[in-house]
Every structure is written in structure tokens, then in C-alpha cells.
Amino acid sequence: MTNAVEMIGIRKVYPGVIANNNVNFSVATGEIHALVGENGAGKSTLMNVLFGLTRPEEGQIFINGKQVHIHKNSDAIALGIGMVHQSFKLVPSFTVTENITLGGEPRKGLLVDRKAAHDNIVEISKRFGLQVDPDARIRDLPVGVQQRVEILKALYHNADILILDEPTAVLTPQETRDLFGVIRSLVAKGKTVIFITHKFNEVMTISDRVTVMRDGKVVETKDTKDTNPTELARMMVGRDVLLRVDKAPANPKDVVLEVQDLEVLDNRNLKAVRGLSLQVRAGEILGIAGVEGNGQRELVEAIVGLRPVYSGKVVMQGKEITHASVRQRRDDGISCVPEDRYVRGVALRATLEDNLIVESYFKEPIGRGMLIDLNQVTEFSQNLIKKFDVRTPSSKVTAGALSGGNMQKVVLARELSLDPTLLIVAQPTRGLDVGSIEFVHRTIIEARDRGAAVLLVSAELEEIMSLSDRINVVYEGRIMGEVSGAEADEESLGLWMAGVGGNAEAAHEASSEHTAETLKG
Amino acid sequence: MSKFMNSMRGILQRSFTLGLSILMAILVGSIIMLIDNHNPIEVYRLLLEGAFGSTRGLFITMQRATPLIFTAIASTLAFRTGVFNVGVEGQFFIGAIVGTWVGYAFQMPAVIHLPLTLLAGFIGGAAWAYFPTVMRQKLGVNEIITTIMTNYIATFLISYLTNYPMRASATTPETPPVQVTARLPQFVEISKEFGKGSQAHVGIFIALAVVVIMWFIFRRTKLGYEWRMVGLSHMFSEFGGVNLNRTFISGMLVSGGIAGLGGIVEILGVWREYKNLFAVGFGFRGNLASLLGGQTVIGSTVAAIFYGGMESGALSLEWGAGVPRQLIDIIVGLVIFFMAAEGMWDFLRRRKAAAKSGGDAPTAGQTPAKPAEKTEAAGQAAQAK
């Protein structure tokens, strides 16, 4: 069997970093090949080389056994290579057909032959079992369908080799399963798929072979059936990694946070949180599972005080704080690791010291009268940097100079420095490597064991299931159902995440209300 | 050690780009001078000699730099809190006119009169900054627009005041002179020899005191921390519990106050009465000096003194060599232009690098920085709505 893709001795150097160091990578025709590695391992660089987005210093590429020179993106497309990026490149106000044919419209004289385009897409979507309404507008489609449009776009340009860059990051478990179905049908029709991911269970489920990268090099390529998640993790990180989180049973005490019938508006003034209630007790982790964009962001912002509450109540240890300021709430013991690490979590252009003291500069011992004691600032910062093992040359470098994992440690250090009664953590491990994830998870559990109430919001189902003592699933701004952490299974959580079962009636009512409001707005 | 190296590297980089910009400006300026039939080397020599080559030149430099230090520091303070205060110009005038009124309308001993007059200037400037600040905070109106507009209002308001209610002279629109008890002495009034041929005055000490105080506030106080952090990232500061509204407003008020103080110091030291349009452009040049100085307290002070020197040199050029001072304005304009171009070069370089790497920047720090800033800008836009 010939190889669809054969990359030999690829070397790509960025200033100060060898992104790809003598990489050999081959994909057999008709296989599903998983490419795994931590952030910065060089997966994206390698795929960008293949897709003609960047040019390597050295190396050869063979497509279907023939040596090729890919100088630019259009070369790669002409060779039948297609890529679906993590963030979709679609025009929301265009229809599916318009998006797919954009830049390659069939023409009739000077005009676009709309009918030919439409028929062509219907034909392709039938052939590969990708159901999409060609006339629907992108903005009206769920994420999973948008992704399908991206795949169709590649197929429309006659792609035989498809690169999928972390395609499941934005999907529910059911949508992921649908996607896997699509991938299998593509392969059955003779296509070749390269699947970039960092989730080991997906590697095990979908791929035929897997290539692991670390530090710009290929560690190994293996048949999937000959390996297991533990081995993959070890190859990826270079040491043994604890995949399951070790934690003692929870010891819940008094209710710390109580949210009652909360309604919160999003940036477009639509209700994003619609009558949500929950309770978090001291010494337990409550996980909020759900596909992103179902009101989690607004919920967290409303509890922290960054977003006004439309109706309902937020009660902290029996005291109503629905309309309190951010600082008052922090004084009441609320800490938060925000989901926008680069926007809310740190000030990128400020020093670590300035980042670390934002919640303590105004009180003793750092703040004295109107002044700030600079010696105290340095001492305070260096203690936290040491305690949380932040890898940095000094406490005076800017936060933007740190890696994602170290930046998150800075955020955690600051938020835990005040020994919070309630710790809110939103998408705490997004974009982090396996080693940092382990650290963040351990820190969260330690906070719980010290008696903090923890509210964990995450789109990563695995994270929710391994950390939470109780799990609530949110869909369209409401809680669909609750299950204890021990009893949770991916299947039923996934259904709730998709708005099926549980509180189904409420959800249906919610979505029709939602449409009405959209129309009004 | 590494901390020292870091800050040294920053200063070096900054000086290098500044030096490069000045060099480019000098080159382009030379071409213009050649076209105008002047020997550029001779002109530059006279320029520097005029500014810094003699005691008299130095005093004129000092006199010219004094108001610029105020307006540059005022701009810097606003920039640092994330606001572009184009209104420094108007705040400078309003501070001057309010102070002038207190200066001529009351009679009291100097120990009370002088501080009171200065305070009036500060309050005048702050009050004039308050209006656009409230517009921004409550209605989300862009402060650049409102401060430009309030500059016009200030100009015409003062034109009215000096032409009608406050007019003292039948021939020209000017106010009565301020009382002797409110004046800032010129050096030449203190000693005949010292500062001869210039109107340099003790207001420079007030300017330098403002510099030291602002430097201290930024570095060592809670208020300064809040100003800095809000300027660096208001999204982060809000999350950390900093009261954005209060911080913005206090920053703008103090910025306006410093501009107004600059206005009254200029009146009390040099003019001693308010002549309509006595010193147009100090505010804008302060904005520029702040940009030149990298929006830091020390940097903009140095830039203001440099700018003052250029003006002093230009004066002596005009007297001595017949070179029109507009040429000097062009040179200073070119320096600013090339400074701004530095940002442009940086942008182009990054875009080129991004095109090469297919938008996949390799270092951990840079990749996330871009979307973050975008979101931040979006947040600002949302706030503006």
C-alpha cells in the first residue's frame, strides 16, 4: 500500500524555537491517523507545513508516492489536501452553499451558477452521508453542523487527505459520535484522515494508527491497538502521568453559595441564564457541565459581580450579594479563576508582582495608608511564585512572557492567596498541557479539602467527571439535571448537554422563548 | 541582576528607537532645508547651540519647557489610565483663565494668594476635564471626540470672557494684570544677572515637583497602582475588584488639574495677565511630548525639555540666521512621525513573520496575546455602547 502522505526530515525553526526537528511522518492511504502531543510539541507546525501555510527549512514531502513541492496553500489544495481548523472559517450571514463555494463558485458567463453550486453540494453531502441544508445560514446552525460544513468545503475542493485540527473541542459527546461516524464514512469512501487531538480516549476510539510528538520531534508511531492511554500520556509528557485524579470522598458542610432563580442577560441583551438555581456546600466540588455558550460565562460573571443580575438572587453564607460590587464579594470570600485567562485572569503587559497583588494591594501588610509597601509586594509575590512553582526568571517579568500553564499558576496563586470560602474555576485547564492540568486539578482538590466550596465550570466532560462530587448539567441557561460524581456516565450527561431528557419540557419552552426574544431583539 | 538587565534592555531599546527616529527626522529635515537653501549642518549646529549652548539659551529652554512639562505629564497620566486626553489644551486654558481671575480679583497676602491662585488653576483644569469624563463613563462617548470639542468650547468661552466681562484694555482683549501677590517671580527679577534675557521663572520648580510627585504616585501608592493597572487592562482590573469608574474619573481629573496648573503657572510666571490666545498649542505639544517620552513620567519630562530646547533653538535661529521656525516644527513633527512609524515597522515585521509561519506564532507568550487584546478591544466597544 502506498502512503498518502510521507514527510521526511522536516525541519522548521522559529526564532528561538525548533518547532519541527527532523520529523518523519507518514500516513497510509485510507487510514485514520491520530496526531497527538502537548501544546508546542510541533503538531500544528507540521500540519501547517503540509497544508502549505508555512515553509520548512528542510525536508521532503511525498503525496501518493510522488515528491511534491508545497510552496503555498493553494498548492496543497490542488494536491487534494484539506484542513478543518479548530476555529471555523465561515461567514455567519452566508448560506451553507455560499460558504462552501466561496472563491470557487461555478460560473455561467459572468454570473454565479447558483443551481449548479446547490446541486453539487447536495450530491457531495449525499455521497458522504453529511446531512446539511444547503440553504441554511451558518449563524442558525449548531456548532456540530458548522463543522460538517467545513468538511464539505474541503470535499468540495476535492480533498482526498483531510486534516482535522482538534475537531471535538467544541462538540457534545453525541456530536462527537456523529463526527466519528462521518470520519468513518469518509474513510470508507477512500479518503485519508489526519486527526489532531490531545484526548486519549478519542485516539483509542477512532484512529488506526497514532503518532506522538514531543518537543518538535516524533516520539513514536504505533498501531492504536498496540497501545493504551497511559503509554500515550507517558510518550507525550516524557514521564509517568496520573490520568485519574486521586481524591478522598467529599465531606460537605454548610451551604456557602446559593443561587436562586437567576436570570442574567448576555452581551446582546438576551437571557443567557434563565431561571437557574444551585447550591454549593463547603468542602465539595460542584461541577457545571455543558456545551459552551449555554450561559456558563454569564452565570460565573453574575456570581463574581462582573455582570448585573436581571432577576433572582445570589446568596453567600446567608448574606444576599446579588448587587454587591466585585470587591465586596471578594471581601466575602469569593475567588475566581476566570475562563478568559488572557483577558480577565492576568494583565499581560503588567509584571507578575502587579498581577499577583490586585486583590491584596489595598490591605495590610502590602497596603499601608495610601501607600504600597514595595518590599512586601516582592516578598508576597516571591512566596506565591515559590509555593505554586511558577517557572519564571523573576517576579518582575510581564505575565505575557509566561507559558499558558505558568500563567494559570499565577492566577491560581493569586486567587488562593486569600484562602477563599468559595472558589469558582471556569475552564481551568483550557489550552494547558498534561503536566499543568495535573497541577491545576490537584490544586482545586486541595482547596476543597481545606474546606472551600468549589464551583467548577468546564466544557471538558472528563474534567467534570473526575473532579466533581456533584454534577449539574446546564443547557440554555437552565439546570437540566443533577447527578452525583460517582454515578455520572458520559452518555446521560451528554444527552442533558444536548437538551434531551431531564428537564426536557422546560428546555423546550426555553428555546422557543429564546427564539421569540431573538426576533424581538 | 536580571531585573536590572531587564529594565536596562527596555531603556536601551527605547533610546535606540528614539535615536533612530531622530536620525531619520534629521535626514528628511536636511533635505527640506537644502531645498530651502540652508546649510543643514549649520542649522542643526545653531539649533543646538541656541537651545543648550549658552546660559541665556538654557534659560529660554527652561521657560519654554515649563508649561510643556505640565501638559506632557497631564497627557501621560491620562495615557497610563488608558485615556487619550486631547483636552489638555482646553484644560490648560481654563486653568489659566480661572487662576487669572483669582489672581487679579482678590487682594490678600502672597502666602495665601499665590497658593490659592495655583489651586484655582488646578480646579479649573480638573473641572474642564470632568465633563468629557462623565460623557465617557455614563454615555460611552469617546473621549477623544469630546475632549476635542471641549477644546473648542474652551477657546470660544475664553474669547468671550477676555473680550467682554473680564476685559481691561480698550485696545486688545486681555484681562487686568494679576496682583503682585499672586505672581511667580522670574529669575531676572530675583537677580539681574541670573537668567538675563529670558522670562524663565520659578514655575519650573513647581513643574519638577509635579514630576516627582507623579512618579511617586505611580510607583508607590494604591491610587497609582489602580491607574496603571486600569490602563494596562481594564478587564483584568475590573475582575480584580478595582472600581473602574472611580479610577478613570480620578485619573482624568488629576490630568486636567495638572494641565490647568500648567496654564496658571505660565500666566503667573510669564504673562501676568490673560491675553486671548496667549499660548495656543501647549496642550497638543504636551500630548506629543508624552508620546515621544513613551508615556512615562520621566520620559515625557525629558521629551518636554527637549521640545522646549528645540523651540528655544528655533527662536535664536530665527533671530540669528533667518531660518523660519516652521522648519523646526517640521523636524519635531518628523521625529514624532518616525516614532509612530516604529510601531508601524513592528506591525509590518510581525505580519511578515505571521505570513511566513501561517499565523502560527511559535512562542507561548505571543500567540495568546493577540486574541486577548482583540477581546479586550471588543469589551471596550461593548462598554462604549
From TrEMBL, chain A:
Span of domain ABC transporter: 5-240, 257-501
A single cellular component GO annotation: plasma membrane
Compartment(s) of residence: Cell membrane
One function term, GO molecular function aspect: ATP hydrolysis activity
Keyword presence, Transport: yes
Keyword entries, A-Z: ATP-binding, Cell membrane, Membrane, Nucleotide-binding, Repeat, Translocase, Transport
Primary location group: membrane
Bilayer topology annotation: Peripheral membrane protein
Cited Gene3D superfamilies: P-loop containing nucleotide triphosphate hydrolases (3.40.50.300)
Protein name: Nucleoside ABC transporter ATP-binding protein
UniProt organism field: Levilinea saccharolytica
Automatic annotation (TrEMBL), chain B:
GO cellular component terms attached to this protein's record: plasma membrane
InterPro entries: ABC_transp_permease
GO molecular function: transmembrane transporter activity
Membrane protein topology class: Multi-pass membrane protein
Location of region: Disordered: 357-385
Record localization: Cell membrane
Keyword vocabulary terms for this entry: Cell membrane, Membrane, Transmembrane, Transmembrane helix
Cited Pfam families: BPD_transp_2 (PF02653)
Bilayer-spanning residue ranges: 12-35, 86-106, 112-131, 143-161, 200-218, 248-268, 288-307, 327-348
Name assigned to this protein: ABC-type uncharacterized transport system, permease component
Organism, as annotated: Levilinea saccharolytica
